[in-house]
Backbone:
């Protein structure tokens, strides 16, 4: 029996290596969470055709069509795939094995110019493991290590095909606060001076070099000619002054940032540091800011809301890890959302991004604790689907089940925010995904410890 | 192997019951003396004042006789009582049963729709010795200046003002925890078990009567830390050579001249100090268990045992617990084979499971970590009852720490370390509502002032917040 299962699994793995086509999905009588912040729909239906969502809502409103219904066990939930931001998915194999880990490059001559897109490994075990956990799209980026700038992040899908990057150079990152200050030579003042100088140099270089502008995020998503130009590679001999600090390559990479064509993700925690970041808009009006971390965001929530700056916030940090997060509390996100801030849960502030749903569930739990501020179920789920999708430039396309959205559909055997929830099936762009990976293969091998006939090494 | 202390020697009146429960669970006996170690020809020295040094000054705080009624009770020993009653008085559990228990003379607390468990116990924490704020000045967890430092005691590094203790209490329902030295060294030093009751001194937190633990570490960390300095050990074989020679030297120690390192090692060989061995890989755990047999000591628990599932049979036979995470993996080479089913596979083999944190964050959610591990088993058809899973973070931890005759389960005569949850503790949507330690109410979600605030947080933004 066990061997038969193994063979079946092997066949499945082989079959999934073949080019896959989007399949149509029609389910009814399931609990549907659309990801848009609304409450789950208990007797819901979802229809996906040609890789796109056609319908998601009450079963009664399901369009009549001839599509065969997919079977659903009682208690089945259907949701959009989770969207993880900020991550390092595809950039490392083993954390402490430095040759397998491309997250940091403290000896690199470059910083802002670093680009995650060409180094994402779609065959990464972490991508496969997170795909099996229901994460279908992610923002992935290197970490600030040689300077305050961490480099340019990519938006990826977690499909099993060879093409992971759906948008290269989607955002730039900069580290301020305590860690940025260390990278800048030792103080926040140095980090702020470095940042301003870099933006000034980028501004000058952009006009001297006549770098044309294309927004990295068009209003409507698509593929092809809206892919942003890589300003680093613009062929020109524009003169630069003698006192420049940035290399030509780093300066070029920051041109879309200073013009607001590429969002700048600012890693910052302390309330005062957040205020200073928001104030940057007075000097650099075009900046498209996103706050990351923001553990003390609740103390300045109305300022953040007024500035219209979205936040990718650490979900459950509640300790004074450093002096920049003395006021950290698990109520941070609840309080910011209450003040009108757009907040996604930061996938980097947990052991692995696959804990996103657990973190969201915890924010729901907080709503029952006097004095704490949590989220409704719908808000919490949006904080790991539609909101990070919107921040990632995937508004309406991912993180939501709505007509026209990508067919990123995850089927669960229960409440996806409950601890231990795991998908039973995962679709990306309507293509069913294999859920096999190194961990599932180990699981299958060690379902028993029976070595009567042959060593475990033959059990595969 | 049966626990020797189930059948003689000094024991409290409830120990027989605890032993019976222990045998019913997954064979977690850990406090037995070493197989072939020297007989008790040596006792730990006392100070010039005739007292055990740094002894506990903890005393329980006052509490009211309290009857928790109407809740679902998981007793930590594998039992579930619906509509149960738990009676607390004078710091002890005095009764656990159904609704027929007489509650006269008690403050009756209605727990309808709520759940009661023993206080949560974390077998692997660095609170206090790696406190927050985690600045260099607070980095007191690894005496990484020699590969073997049996002479250091974690309690001498514990900062009682670590705000992490308060979060573990309020959000995690943690009532007792073992603070371990770090894993840079093959032999990291003595651990200390604490009551999670704030105190001005570490002695004021020390769990009275808890045995010491001894932290050891396998694998990558010691060989990396010392190999990088060009000294032994730089390989796994070097790790074992240094360990074995250190044990041999300790066995020859006659106690005539005091030696802090040898006193600790001798305590281990005599079965008075329990070994907690950081070890990820299955093959390495098997080697360590053989080394322990050779030298005459016993491993109480392997910590971070991400590959324990590969040798659940061996661990059961050797009566060693596995203290594990639910889902950490991949951060280092020896963690590459971590799988979600680790706990469930161990339980399937009848081996002892403990879910641990090693984290100031995850110590606040050990109940959720346990639930994750349970769910992974359920997906494969390995159904482990909720009551058993609660044992992973209560009684099993207590056993591996040698405090199971005092706490870890709700049984008459044990310490009244109790959590009232506002819902199913294995659900993400539940939180501790009240936490008692030795019958004293130390946290109440419904009373803003009934929560500890460390000295460090006074006058800081967010002081006294729900956190």
Residues:
């Amino acid at each position: 029996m066990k061997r038969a299962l193994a063979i079946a699994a092997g066949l499945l793995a082989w079959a999934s290596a073949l080019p896959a086509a989007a399949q149509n999905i029609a389910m009814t009588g399931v609990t549907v969470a659309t990801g848009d912040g609304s409450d789950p729909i208990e007797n819901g239906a979802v229809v996906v055709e040609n890789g796109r969502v056609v319908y998601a809502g009450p079963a009664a409103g399901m369009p009549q069509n001839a599509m065969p219904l997919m079977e659903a066990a009682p208690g089945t939930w259907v949701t959009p795939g989770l969207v993880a931001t900020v991550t390092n998915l595809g950039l490392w194999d083993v954390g402490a094995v430095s040759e397998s880990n491309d997250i940091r490059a403290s000896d690199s001559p470059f910083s802002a110019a670093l680009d995650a897109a060409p180094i994402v490994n779609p065959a990464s075990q972490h991508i496969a493991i997170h795909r099996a956990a229901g994460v279908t799209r992610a923002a992935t980026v290197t970490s600030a290590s040689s300077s305050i700038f961490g480099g340019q992040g990519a938006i990826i899908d977690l499909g099993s095909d060879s093409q992971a990057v759906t948008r290269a150079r989607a955002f730039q990152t900069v580290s301020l606060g305590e860690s940025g200050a260390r990278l800048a030579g030792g103080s926040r003042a140095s980090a702020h001076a470095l940042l301003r100088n870099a933006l000034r140099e980028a501004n000058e270089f952009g006009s001297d070099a006549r770098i044309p502008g294309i927004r990295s995020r068009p209003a409507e998503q698509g593929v092809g000619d809206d892919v942003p130009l890589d300003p680093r590679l613009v062929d020109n001999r524009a003169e630069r002054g003698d006192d420049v600090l940035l290399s030509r390559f780093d300066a070029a990479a920051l041109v879309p940032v200073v013009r607001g064509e590429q969002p700048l993700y600012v890693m910052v925690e302390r309330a005062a540091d957040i205020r200073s970041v928001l104030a940057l808009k007075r000097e650099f009006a075009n900046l498209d800011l996103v706050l990351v971390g923001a553990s003390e965001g609740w103390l300045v929530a109305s300022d953040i809301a007024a500035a219209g700056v979205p936040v990718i916030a650490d979900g459950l940090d509640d300790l004074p890890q450093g002096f920049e997060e003395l006021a950290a509390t698990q109520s941070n996100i609840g309080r910011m959302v209450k003040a009108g801030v757009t907040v996604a849960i930061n996938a980097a502030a947990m052991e692995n991004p696959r804990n996103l749903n657990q973190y969201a569930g915890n924010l729901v739990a907080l709503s029952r604790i006097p004095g704490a501020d949590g989220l409704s179920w719908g808000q919490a789920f949006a904080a790991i689907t539609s909101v990070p999708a919107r921040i990632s430039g995937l508004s309406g396309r991912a993180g939501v089940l709505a007509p026209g959205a990508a067919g990123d559909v995850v089927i669960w055997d229960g409440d996806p925010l409950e601890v231990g929830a795991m998908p039973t099936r995962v679709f990306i762009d309507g293509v069913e995904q294999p859920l096999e990976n190194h961990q599932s293969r180990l699981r299958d091998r060690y379902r028993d410890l029976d070595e009567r006939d042959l060593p475990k090494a033959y059990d595969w | 192997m049966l626990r020797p202390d189930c059948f003689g020697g000094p024991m409290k009146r409830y120990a027989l019951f605890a032993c019976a429960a222990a045998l019913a669970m997954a064979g977690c006996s850990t406090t037995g003396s070493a197989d072939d170690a020297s007989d008790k020809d040596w006792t730990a020295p006392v100070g010039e004042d005739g007292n055990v040094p740094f002894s506990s000054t903890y005393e329980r705080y006052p509490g009211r006789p309290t009857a928790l009624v109407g809740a679902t009770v998981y007793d930590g020993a594998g039992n579930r009582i619906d509509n149960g009653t738990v009676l607390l008085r004078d710091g002890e559990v005095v009764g656990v049963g159904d609704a027929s228990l007489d509650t006269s003379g008690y403050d009756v607390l209605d727990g309808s729709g709520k759940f009661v468990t023993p206080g949560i116990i974390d077998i692997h924490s660095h609170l206090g010795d790696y406190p927050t704020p985690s600045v260099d000045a607070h980095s007191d967890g690894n005496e990484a200046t020699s590969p073997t430092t049996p002479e250091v005691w974690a309690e001498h590094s514990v900062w009682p003002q670590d705000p992490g203790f308060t979060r573990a209490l309020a959000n995690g329902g943690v009532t007792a925890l073992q603070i371990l030295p770090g894993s840079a060294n093959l032999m990291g030093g003595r651990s200390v078990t604490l009551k999670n009751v704030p105190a001005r001194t570490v002695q004021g937190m020390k769990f009275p009567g808890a045995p010491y633990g001894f932290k050891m570490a396998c694998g990558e960390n010691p060989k990396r830390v010392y190999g990088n300095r060009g000294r032994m050990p730089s390989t796994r074989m070097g790790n074992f050579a240094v360990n074995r020679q250190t044990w041999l030297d300790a066995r020859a120690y006659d106690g005539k001249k005091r030696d802090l390192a040898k006193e600790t090692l001798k305590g281990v060989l005599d079965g008075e100090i329990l070994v907690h061995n950081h070890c990820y890989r299955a093959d390495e755990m098997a080697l360590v268990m053989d080394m322990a047999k050779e030298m005459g000591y016993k491993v109480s628990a392997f910590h971070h045992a991400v590959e324990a599932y590969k040798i659940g049979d061996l661990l059961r036979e050797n009566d060693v617990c596995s203290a594990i995470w639910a889902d950490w993996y991949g951060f280092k080479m020896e963690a590459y084979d971590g799988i979600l089913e680790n706990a469930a596979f161990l339980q399937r083999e009848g081996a002892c499971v403990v879910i641990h944190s090693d984290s100031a964050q995850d110590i606040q959610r050990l109940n959720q970590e346990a639930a994750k591990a349970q769910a992974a088993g359920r997906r494969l058809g390995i159904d482990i009852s909720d009551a058993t899973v609660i044992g992973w973070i209560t009684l099993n931890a207590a056993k591996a720490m040698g405090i199971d005759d005092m706490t870890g389960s709700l049984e008459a005569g044990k310490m009244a370390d109790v959590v009232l949850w506002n819902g199913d503790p294995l659900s993400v949507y539940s939180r501790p509502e009240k936490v008692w330690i030795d019958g004293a109410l130390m946290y109440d979600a419904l009373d803003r002032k009934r929560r500890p605030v460390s000295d460090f947080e006074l006058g800081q933004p967010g002081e006294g917040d729900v956190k």
